[in-house]
C-alpha cells in the first residue's frame, strides 16, 4: 500500500512540474488508443489457483503528452488446486505517467491502477478488488502502431485468498486513432 501511495504522490508531483513547463504542447491527434494485450499472471504467493495466461484489450485516452488513462479487461482459463477448471477475469482502470513527452522510438512509463478481480466457476469462487502498479514501454513502429511490454505488481490483499503479492507480465500491440 505504501508503494501505491508513493507512486500516486510521484505522479501528482510530476504532473504539477509538467503543467508549469510552458515549452511542452498538447498532442492534438492520436489521443485515443486501443491495445490487444496478453501475458501471464504469475501467482507467487500460495493461493488455490494456478498461474494463468490472460489476454484481452485496453481502451485508453491520452489527455496530456505525459499522461493517459485506460480501461482494461483481461480473461484467462486455468485450474484450481482441486483440478476444477474455471475462468479468471480482471477489469480495471489505470493511470500512466510517461517521463518523456516527445519519444523517438521507446517510450517508458509508470502506471497505477485497480479494479475488479474474479476467480469464477472453480471449486471455490472468489472475487474482490485488486490494486496494481508497474512499469512498461511502448516501441513505436509507425505513427499509429506500437508494441507494448509491461510488468506489474498485483496486490490481491483485499480478497480472501491466503496470498497478497503477485506479479504479471504483459505484451501486445497498440493502435492510436
Topology:
Layout: H1 2-20, E1 32-42, E2 52-64, E3 67-79, E4 85-97, E5 106-120, E6 126-140, E7 145-155, E8 165-176
Antiparallel strand pairs: 1-2, 1-8, 2-3, 3-4, 4-5, 5-6, 6-7, 7-8
What are its keywords?
eight-stranded antiparallel barrel; 177 residues; mainly beta; 58% strand; elongated; 1 helix; 8 strands
Description of the structure:
- By secondary structure, this protein is mainly beta.
- The protein is built from one helix and eight strands; from the N terminus they run αββββββββ.
- It has one helix at 2-20; strands spanning 32-42, 52-64, 67-79, 85-97, 106-120, 126-140, 145-155, 165-176.
- The chain has an eight-stranded antiparallel barrel with strand order 1-2-3-4-5-6-7-8.
- A hairpin with a 4-residue loop joins strand 6 (126-140) and strand 7.
- The longest helix has 19 residues, at 2-20.
- 25% of the residues are buried.
- Mean pLDDT is 87; it is low at 20-27.
Amino acid at each position: 500500500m505504501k508503494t501505491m501511495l508513493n507512486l500516486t504522490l510521484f505522479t501528482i508531483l510530476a504532473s504539477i512540474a509538467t503543467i508549469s513547463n510552458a515549452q511542452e504542447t498538447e498532442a492534438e491527434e492520436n489521443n485515443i488508443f486501443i491495445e490487444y494485450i496478453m501475458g501471464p499472471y504469475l501467482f507467487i504467493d500460495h493461493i488455490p489457483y494456478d498461474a494463468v495466461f490472460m489476454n484481452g484489450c485496453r481502451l485508453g485516452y491520452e489527455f496530456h503528452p505525459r499522461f493517459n488513462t485506460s480501461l482494461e479487461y483481461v480473461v484467462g482459463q486455468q485450474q484450481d488446486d482441486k483440478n476444477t477448471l474455471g475462468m479468471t477475469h480482471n477489469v480495471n482502470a489505470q493511470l500512466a505517467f510517461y517521463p518523456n513527452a516527445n519519444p523517438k522510438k521507446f517510450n517508458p512509463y509508470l502506471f497505477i491502477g485497480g479494479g475488479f478481480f474474479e476467480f469464477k466457476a472453480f471449486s471455490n469462487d472468489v472475487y474482490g478488488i485488486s490494486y496494481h502498479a508497474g512499469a512498461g514501454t511502448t516501441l513505436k513502429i509507425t505513427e499509429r502502431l506500437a508494441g507494448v511490454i509491461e510488468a506489474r505488481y498485483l496486490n490481491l490483499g483485499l480478497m480472501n485468498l491466503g496470498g497478497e503479492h503477485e506479479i504479471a507480465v504483459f505484451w501486445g500491440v497498440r493502435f492510436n486513432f
